[in-house]
Specification:
The structure holds 2 protein chains of 2 kinds.
Chain A (H helix, E strand, L loop, with lengths): L6 H9 L5 H19 L2 E3 L2 H16 L10 E5 L26 H8 L3 E6 L33 H8 L5 E6 L5 H7 L2 E4 L19 E6 L2 H11 L29 E5 H4 L6 H16 L3 E5 L7 H16 L17 H12 L2 H14 L5 H21 L5 E5 L15 H6 L5 H6 L2 E9 L6 E8 L4 H14 L11
Parallel strand pairs in A: 2-3, 2-4, 7-8, 7-9
Antiparallel strand pairs in A: 1-3, 4-6, 5-6, 5-10, 9-11, 10-11
Helix pairs in contact in A: 2-3, 5-6, 7-16, 10-12, 10-13
Chain B lengths: L2 E12 L38 H13 L11 E4 L9 E4 L6 E10 L2 E14 L3 E4 L4 E4 L6 E7 L6 H17 L12 E11 L9 E6 L2 H20 L7 E6 L4 E7 L9 E2 L10 H8 L6 H11 L4 H9 L1 H11 L5 H29 L19 H12 L5 H14 L3 H8 L7 H14 L1 H8 L6 H11 L6 H13 L1
Parallel strand pairs in B: 10-11
Antiparallel strand pairs in B: 1-8, 1-9, 2-3, 2-13, 4-5, 5-8, 6-7, 9-10, 11-12
Chain lengths: 486, 493
């Protein structure tokens, strides 16, 4: 059962030559074969390519090389470019598109000797909170296959929770890492904007998107974050901030840390009592471990959803304009270019993508720009200020990751607004450009479904988040519980 | 009623950089289609733009040369529109915070000076090129992402000729500054024209009509020469003009309507989230400032003032910068710079042109393409510029006659020998020995009785015939001034 290992367990055993990278990969591939027909985390899998990488890793290990990811199978959300692999973004319009280049994170993982395998399912172009917007069918929650795994990086969360890989990468624009991690019971981290290069991440909303890790343990998330972080000359919005040794931040001590509890989050309508109870208990645990919880206020919280859906859709309307059938991807011909565009985009995009493109086009239109886009940018600044002000008195903020646990497939897919509200606790983090992490903090009773705790940190404050999360994780047993997959 | 035109120009100029605006692809013209492309300039999923530093520098340098203000902060925006030659279906440009704004260009026009104010010069990216074949179309993205400067003028122009002169002055500045080669044949400069007419002396503006698709300065002039009377005619016929965009049909020599205001594009500009705002540091600005050059007009005026050259000569040196540099070197310490200018323009330039024409013919016969040919240029000359000054000096101090000087120049050009040495070797020094000249003059008068009689009867021009004879007898070495004096004296006697 090598597929159930964590990153640190895998590398430790690889270094001791007890196992080979090939064997670890084979175990993951076996698990995919065993469970993915039920879970649908994977959209594509190139076994020969993965095996070749595993063999190459084994050679490096045999040559005495060591590294925190050397030989570790890692699966990628289908929105991150891997040279010569499909890059569909969960969309018909890119169904047969093969990337001609590697994303920067892909290059970093390669250099670290990770075995990059599989294309993970997602909501089309990362727009959604359930993977129901995938053009290729939804993924299923491993804890209850009638329920959604969250989204948009649902495939990443499922693959990690169901031990189909050792760790995974996803992307987070409004909660797309933290929400599915919470709903599937794994660790998900959205880095500070600019921490990780976006080069090779197919853009949904450029000023909000970040790539981040999915892992079974907080320590693994720290290792993976360290491997993919850093300034990239190919991404002008990446920041030249030194990359610390994130593992070294896992000291196990919370002594003297002040944790903010935003009253707006805990008083939110629609917060499931079982979720609230679990988060309250987690706060008590953190206090017990030495931290000092204090109530804070983030007064502009109510405006986050509206602000997000203006800025994100405005950027998306331009970012997705390139999918036109002219140079690559799906082409549905027409008598002139305009008709070709209409046919291609009409048939290539799903409803939610069209809805957001239309909304984004509208808010940027002449005469509406000032009322919507410009105002949203101003509110965004206020939301960021709320956080920066809070961080003057607290070291991190603790909230529920989601208002409810995983909902049923189809439950919200006909009501976009209800779907949008499932991200109310995660959106602000992207608007503020700060970092956020979610980790398991309990389960509902019946059915047994994971509950996620969200930690929010200062810009480039990932070390604090990881320290708090790791200390909590080590003091609780939630992370060792596994879904029954048979 | 009399009308006057109000004209503003938007001039697009490709910047002279090694690589494209957002990626490392080569910025070159004439490569096979889609060979200078990469995921970035093809708008592949997931790619990001990174601004070309040299393009940012050339933009600010242009601003400085056009007397613009350089704002402390500039940013890029997305201009959204669908067209097959726009890879991303948005163009990255600078909308409300350009790199430069508020300058002017001074230029000579109709014997005086004119000034056109510059609204802004901003940086953007060029688009690809659509090619239409019999049954389908293709897009060549080699040009997509080439850095493009848009220079927007205020509506300060009043005629087609003035627009033409402004464009030439602008081009001179850009070429001088090394901003662009401004090669029209290669599409490096393109113009959009905004033109309206109003009652003469009025202050309001008529309906603005934009003309697109002119790819030469003469095209702009022709389009305006057509469009201005057209608009006046409409108004005089009691019609009204509405804001619209027209296309210049170069072959037909007419403008035709493309779209009116109601169908104008809504470009939905918004700040480009993939690029950080640009805030030049004082050090960065100083480095750009150090690249400023003397402007063409200033250069022309300096040549006229410092070397006392006529406007025509100064214009030649303004237009041909290397030749002007050569002249300045040759004229160092010359007593008569104007004479040096004459030699540079009339002899040196002509001789080089002849040589180059011969070299082209030779290389063409060998089947070489023009781009692979090599020619003799100013830097290949066998003699230093000082030699030309020395040659002029020999004429000035009457050591050489001007016809002998021509022989010396030919020899210099061929061999690179010093003028004084050539004079010595060939015995070309002018004869100013009165005794010897007297004898030659007597001989010439005797040989030309007719012209001698004519001169005596008052036809003074007849003297030249006899003078020519003396020069011939002396093999060009006689001092022509002295010969004239002697002949006049003898014939009047």
């Amino acid at each position: 059962m090598l597929n159930t290992l964590t990153i640190s367990e895998t590398t430790a055993r690889l270094q001791r030559r007890e196992i080979s990278a090939r064997e670890v990969l084979a175990a993951c591939l076996d698990q995919v074969r065993r469970v993915d027909s039920k879970l649908h985390a994977f959209l594509a899998l190139d076994e020969p390519d993965a095996l070749a990488q595993a063999e190459a890793a084994d050679k490096r290990i045999a040559a005495g090389e060591q590294g925190p990811l050397l030989g570790v199978p890692i699966a990628l959300k289908d929105v991150i470019a891997v040279r010569h692999q499909r890059l569909s973004c969960g969309s018909r319009i890119l169904e047969n598109f093969v990337s001609p280049y590697d994303a920067t994170v892909t290059g970093k993982l390669r250099a670290a000797g990770a075995v990059i395998f599989g294309r993970l399912n997602m909501d089309e172009f990362a727009m959604g909170s359930s993977t129901e917007n995938s053009a290729f069918g939804p993924s299923r929650n491993p804890w209850d296959r009638e329920r959604i795994p969250g989204g948009s990086s649902g495939g990443s969360a499922v693959a990690v929770a169901a031990d189909q890989c050792i760790a995974a990468l996803g992307s987070d624009t409004g909660g797309s890492i933290r929400q599915p991690a919470a709903l599937c019971g794994c660790v998900g981290l959205k880095p500070t904007y600019g921490r990780v290069s976006r080069y090779g991440l197919v853009a949904y909303a450029s000023s909000l998107d970040q790539i981040g890790p999915f892992a079974k343990r907080v320590r693994d998330a720290a290792v993976l974050l360290g491997a993919i972080s850093g300034y990239d000359p190919k991404d002008s919005t990446s920041v030249a901030q030194p990359v610390p040794d994130y593992s070294a931040a896992l000291t196990g001590s919370l002594r003297g840390l002040r944790l903010g509890l935003p009253r707006e989050y805990f008083a939110a309508g629609g917060l499931d009592p079982q979720v609230k109870a679990a988060v309250d208990a987690a706060v008590d645990k953190l206090r017990e471990l030495g931290a000092e919880p204090v109530e804070i206020s983030l007064p502009h919280t109510d405006y986050a959803v509206a602000t997000y859906y203006i800025i994100a859709t405005a950027e998306a309307s331009a970012n997705l304009a390139r999918f036109d059938g002219v140079r690559y991807g799906l082409r549905v011909d027409g008598k002139d270019p305009i008709e070709l565009y209409g046919n291609t985009r009409g048939q290539g995009f799903g409803d939610e993508v069209k809805r957001r493109i239309i909304l984004g086009t509208y808010v940027l239109s002449s005469g509406y720009y000032d009322a919507y886009y410009l105002r949203a940018q101003k509110v965004r600044t206020l939301i960021r200020r709320d956080f920066l002000k809070a961080f003057e008195t607290v070291d991190a903020i603790v909230t529920p990751a989601t208002p409810t646990v995983a909902f049923r497939l189809g439950e919200k897919s006909q009501d976009p607004l209800q779907m949008y509200l499932s991200d109310i606790f995660t959106l602000s983090c992207n608007l503020a450009g700060i970092c956020g992490l979610s980790l398991p903090c309990g389960f509902t009773r019946s059915p047994k479904l994971p509950i996620g705790l969200q930690l929010l940190g200062r810009p480039f404050g990932e070390e604090t988040l990881l320290r708090v999360a790791h200390t909590y994780e080590q003091a609780t047993g939630w992370h060792v519980q596994k879904p029954a997959l048979d | 009623m009399e009308y006057e035109a109000v004209i503003g120009l938007e001039t697009h100029v490709q910047l002279k950089t090694q690589s494209k605006m957002w990626c490392g692809c080569a910025n070159t013209f004439g490569s096979p289609p889609n060979t200078n492309v990469c995921p970035v300039c093809l708008g592949m999923p997931g790619v990001l733009p990174v601004a070309n530093e040299e393009a940012l520098r050339l933009t600010v340098l242009t601003g400085l040369l056009l007397n613009c203000e350089i704002p402390a902060r500039a940013k890029f925006d997305r201009k959204n529109y669908f067209y097959p030659d726009v890879a991303k279906n948005y163009q990255i440009t600078q909308y409300d915070q350009p790199s430069t704004r508020g300058g002017h260009v001074d230029f000579e026009f109709q014997g005086g000076m004119a000034r056109v104010r510059i609204t802004r010069a901003h940086l953007e990216e060029d688009v690809g090129k659509n090619n239409h074949f019999d049954r389908n179309s293709g897009v060549d993205f080699n040009r997509a992402g080439v850095p493009l400067l848009e220079i927007v003028s205020e509506p300060d122009l009043t005629s087609a000729d003035m627009a033409y002169e402004y464009l030439n002055a602008l081009k001179d500045i850009l070429v001088y500054g090394g901003i662009s080669d401004c090669d029209m044949e290669k599409g490096m400069v393109r113009c959009d024209v905004n033109v309206s007419v109003r009652p003469k002396g009025g202050t309001g503006l008529g309906a603005k009509i934009e003309i697109k698709n002119m790819n030469s300065f003469s095209g702009v002039r022709r389009a305006l020469t057509y469009e201005i009377p057209r608009q006046i005619e409409v108004l005089q016929g009691g019609g009204t003009l509405i804001q619209s965009t027209r296309r210049w049909d170069d072959a037909g020599g007419i403008t035709e309507e493309m779209r009116t205001k109601e169908h104008a594009h809504d470009y939905r500009y918004f700040p480009e989230p993939d690029l950080m705002p640009f805030e030049p540091t004082p050090e960065w600005l100083a480095a750009v400032k150090s690249r400023m050059v003397e402007l063409p007009l200033a250069r022309k005026q300096r040549f006229m003032k410092t070397y006392e050259l006529p406007a025509g000569d100064a214009e030649v040196f303004k237009n041909d910068v290397p030749l002007g540099h050569y002249f300045e070197t040759a004229a160092q310490g010359a007593a008569n710079p104007k004479a040096v200018a004459n030699w540079v323009i009339n002899n040196l330039r002509a001789r080089l042109a002849e040589t180059q024409a011969r070299e082209i013919a030779e290389q063409e016969s060998l089947g070489l393409e023009r781009s692979d040919m090599t020619f003799t240029g100013l830097s290949d000359l066998k003699f230093p510029p000082q030699a030309l000054r020395d040659l002029v000096g020999l004429v000035e101090n009457q050591t050489l006659s001007s016809s002998a000087a021509q022989q010396v120049f030919v020899e210099m050009f061929e061999t690179g020998k010093a003028p004084a040495d050539i004079v010595q070797e060939k015995g070309l020094a002018q004869v100013s020995d009165t005794g010897a000249l007297e004898a030659l003059c007597d001989e010439a008068i005797a040989a030309n009785p007719g012209p001698a009689a004519d001169y005596r009867s008052g036809k003074l021009a007849a003297l030249n015939r006899i003078k020519g004879h003396v020069m011939k007898l002396s093999q060009g070495k006689a001092n022509p001034g002295l010969v004239g004096e002697i002949l006049e004296r003898k014939l009047r006697a």
